C-alpha cells in the first residue's frame, strides 16, 4: 500500500496549482524514497519535474513502486477542498483504481475525503542528463514573478543575460525596447558561477506560468547554459524541488 | 521568433 501524510496540506495544494496550467494528465511515481512527477506541456517546449522526498512527510509508506496516472485538472478541483492549516493524506492500495485524498483540520473535528479516479497514460519520459550550467543565479521569487509579469505587457520574449556582476532581462516589442539590470552585489541576486556569460531568449508566457510556484519558496534559482533549456527551480521547504525547464527561442 | 527546438532534442526519451 501507499500512504503519505503532509502536516501542511496547503503545500501540496500550491504545487498542484503551480503546475495545472502547464500539464494536464500526468503519471506520479510513488517509490519507497518519495514521490516524483515529470511531464511536458502539450507543445513540448516546457517540462515540469517535481521530487518530494519521503523525509519531508509526517508519515510515508510505499511498499512497492507505483505509477499513479492522474488528471491534474481534476486533482486541482479536489484541492479546493483543502483549507488553510489542513493536513493532507494521499493513499491507495497496491493495484489502485483511485487515489484517496484525506484532509483534516488542526482540531481533528473536520475530515474531508475524496477518491480521485486514476487513469492509464502512455507518457514519454525524458532523461535529463547531468548538465554543467555556466550561469546560475538565485533571486527573490516574488521579484522575479513581478518582473516577468511586467515585461510580458511589453513583449512576448525576454532575453536573459547573466554575467559576473549583473543579471539582465531585456525585451523588444512593438512599442520599443528596454531592460531590467540587477547588480549582483545587491541583496536580491547573486551569481555562483562568475566565469561565463550566456544570452538566451525565452517566452514570457511560460515564465509567467512557472511563477505560479513563487509562493512555495522565497527564492528562485535560474540555471542556464548555451543551447540548453533554462531551469527555473523552486525549493519546496524540507520536502524537495519543483523544477521547470524551458526551451530557448531563436530571435530573428 | 520561434523555438530553437522542443524538449526531445535536448533530452533523450527513456
Number of DSSP helices of chain B?
1
Q: What structural class results from the helix and strand content of chain B? A: alpha+beta
**How many helices of chain A does DSSP assign?**
4
CA-to-CA gap between the ends of chain B? Answer: 30 Å
Mean of all residue-level pLDDT scores of chain B: 79
How many extended strands of chain A?
A: 20
Biggest β-sheet of chain A: count, sense, barrel? 9 strands, antiparallel
Percent range of helical residues of chain B: 25-40%
Instruction: Provide the residue-averaged pLDDT of chain A.
Output: 92
Overall shape of chain A: it is elongated
Strand content of chain B: 25-35%
Look at the helices and sheets of chain A and give the structural class.
alpha+beta
- Biggest beta sheet summary of chain B: none
Write down the Rg of chain A: 19 Å
Question: Percent of residues of chain A in beta strands?
Answer: over 45%
Gyration radius of chain B, in Å: 9 Å
Low-confidence stretches of chain B: none
> What is the subunit arrangement here?
heterodimer
Detail the topology: elements first, then pairings.
The complex is a heterodimer of chains A (252) and B (14).
Chain A: E1 2-6, H1 9-19, E2 25-31, E3 34-40, E4 46-53, E5 59-62, E6 66-71, H2 72-79, E7 87-92, E8 98-104, E9 111-117, E10 126-127, E11 135-140, H3 141-152, E12 157-162, E13 166-173, E14 176-183, E15 189-191, E16 198-203, H4 204-210, E17 219-224, E18 230-236, E19 240-246, E20 249-250
Antiparallel strand pairs in A: 1-5, 1-7, 2-3, 2-6, 3-4, 4-19, 7-8, 8-9, 11-15, 11-17, 12-13, 12-16, 13-14, 17-18, 18-19
Helix pairs in contact in A: 1-2, 3-4
Chain B: E1 2-3, H1 7-10, E2 12-13
Protein architecture, described:
The complex is a heterodimer of chains A (252) and B (14). Chain A has 252 residues and is an alpha+beta fold. In chain A, 15% of the residues lie in helices and 47% in strands. Chain A contains four helices and 20 strands. Chain A has helices at 9-19, 72-79, 141-152, 204-210, and strands at 2-6, 25-31, 34-40, 46-53, 59-62, 66-71, 87-92, 98-104, 111-117, 126-127, 135-140, 157-162, 166-173, 176-183, 189-191, 198-203, 219-224, 230-236, 240-246, 249-250. In chain A, helix 3 (141-152) runs antiparallel to helix 4. Chain A starts with a strand and ends with a strand. By secondary structure, chain B is of the alpha+beta class. Chain B has one helix at 7-10, and strands spanning 2-3, 12-13. The mean pLDDT of chain B is 79.
